[in-house]
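[recover] target loaded
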């Protein structure tokens, strides 16, 4: 990627900070400014971050972290495991479980010019066993409290946001039913979205005719609708945007159809619902284009979170077991290229005045720089945000915020048991980002050394 072109300053960006970064190289350099990036971290935080990132740099750990964690928990017992795990790996990436812990993390990010994207780690298992009614009610209370926290935090450069998985509120089997009905092509039509939208009508509900669902599957879907409507009404009332996260491959087309339906129902005057698109999948570019056009045709507002993806190994193993073509891009570079093309498509759509909103979430430095260059060259003033995970890519996030970009940090919340599957996927997803991880460790190490020996 050429790095010598000068950014054009857009009015919205230059109004954020008096000293605007003017070139790609300057922005790249700012990603390595550890003193500023870690100004809000204590000495203990830095030591923990360095040790955790060093541990995550070993492929054998990244590839087997969930097995390692579960074996250790079995040997040590839940209580002792939590005592050791919480102050280390957990604390580096997770905001906490209690409201006070989450608010403290959110406030800390806000003071650093970053915006918290709060995400309770609630999801069904790959087998789609589902939860009992008591667990769904508990999940609703956790999500309700998360919505309250989001609405109470001041977001200066973007909407108040929450991220959840649909399987926290409805049976994953419902999503699997819809996935089967959609079919292998994963093509979702306007008729299907409108049909499902009518089924959401609690006064005059209609059966779905555009999808082949059995009587049992229709009943299971109808039972799921009240929780989905509750989510939309709560978020609309509190003016909180909700990102629907990706799930296991056997549920994802169903997730996409339900999310597009919620977009059609609730995104008429604001972008309440956003879908998540995983760019390691070969179909994603086409699906983003199809979904934006579909939602435009319905007169609603499309919103999306663009990520590299979190289920790569699971997708590949499932394809191998089924004897079908691998749905994942062959190489890391192929995925990066697909990500960059998708980001460019969305940026140009926003620049053309479409009512789209997107967050470009990545720890890939080159993808970030390419998006920022196009963002400023197009003179975009609103509707596009950048994001990284708390505890990862802090140099990138800090550099972007200082340059005036709107940056979210994903802030996972939950108990040790709830966050373990998520943490293991993050380590697997980011094991290929060794160059950036090494830079983060060097930045942290240099900042530790600077604080330890301030006169040298």
């Amino acid at each position: 990627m050429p790095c010598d072109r000068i950014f054009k300053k857009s009015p919205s960006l230059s109004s954020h900070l008096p000293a605007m970064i003017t070139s790609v190289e300057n922005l790249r350099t700012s990603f390595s400014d550890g003193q500023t990036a870690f100004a809000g971290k204590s000495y203990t935080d830095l030591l923990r971050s360095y040790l955790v990132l060093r541990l995550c740099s070993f492929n054998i750990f990244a590839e087997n972290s969930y097995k390692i964690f579960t074996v250790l928990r079995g040997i040590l017992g839940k209580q002792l495991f939590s005592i050791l795990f919480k102050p280390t790996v957990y604390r580096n990436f997770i905001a906490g479980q209690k409201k006070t812990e989450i608010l403290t993390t959110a406030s800390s990010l806000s003071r650093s010019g970053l915006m918290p994207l709060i995400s309770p780690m609630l999801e069904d298992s790959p087998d789609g066993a589902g939860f009992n009614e008591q667990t769904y009610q508990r999940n609703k209370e956790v999500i309700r409290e998360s919505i309250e926290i989001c609405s109470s935090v001041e977001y200066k450069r973007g909407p108040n946001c929450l991220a959840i998985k649909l399987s926290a509120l409805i049976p994953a089997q419902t999503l699997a039913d819809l996935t089967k009905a959609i079919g292998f092509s994963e093509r979702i039509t306007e008729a299907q979205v409108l049909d499902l939208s009518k089924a959401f009508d609690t006064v005059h509900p209609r059966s779905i005719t555009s999808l082949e669902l059995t009587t049992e599957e229709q009943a299971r879907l109808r039972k799921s609708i009240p929780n989905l409507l509750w989510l939309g009404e709560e978020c609309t009332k509190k003016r909180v945007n909700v990102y629907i996260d990706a799930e296991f491959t056997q549920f994802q087309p169903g997730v996409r159809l339900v999310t597009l339906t919620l977009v059609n129902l609730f995104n008429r005057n604001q972008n309440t619902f956003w879908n998540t698109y995983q760019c390691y999948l070969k179909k994603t570019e086409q699906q983003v284009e199809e979904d934006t056009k579909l939602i435009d045709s319905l007169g609603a507002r499309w919103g999306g979170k663009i990520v590299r993806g979190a289920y790569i190994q699971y997708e590949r193993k499932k394809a191998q077991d089924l004897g079908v073509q691998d749905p994942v891009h062959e190489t890391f570079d192929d995925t990066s290229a697909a990500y960059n093309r998708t980001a460019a498509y969305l940026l140009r759509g926003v620049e053309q005045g479409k009512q789209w909103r997107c967050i470009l979430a990545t720890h890939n430095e080159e993808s970030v720089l390419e998006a920022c260059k196009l963002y400023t060259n197009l003179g975009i003033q609103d509707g596009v945000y950048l994001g990284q995970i708390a505890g990862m890519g802090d140099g990138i996030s800090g550099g972007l915020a200082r340059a005036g970009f709107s940056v979210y940090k994903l802030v996972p919340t939950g108990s040790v048991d709830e966050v373990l599957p998520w943490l293991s996927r993050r380590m697997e997803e980011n094991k290929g980002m060794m160059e950036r991880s090494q830079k983060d460790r060097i930045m942290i190490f240099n900042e530790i050394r600077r604080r330890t020996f301030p006169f040298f």
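[recover] notes: Residues 1-21 have pLDDT under 50 and may be disordered.
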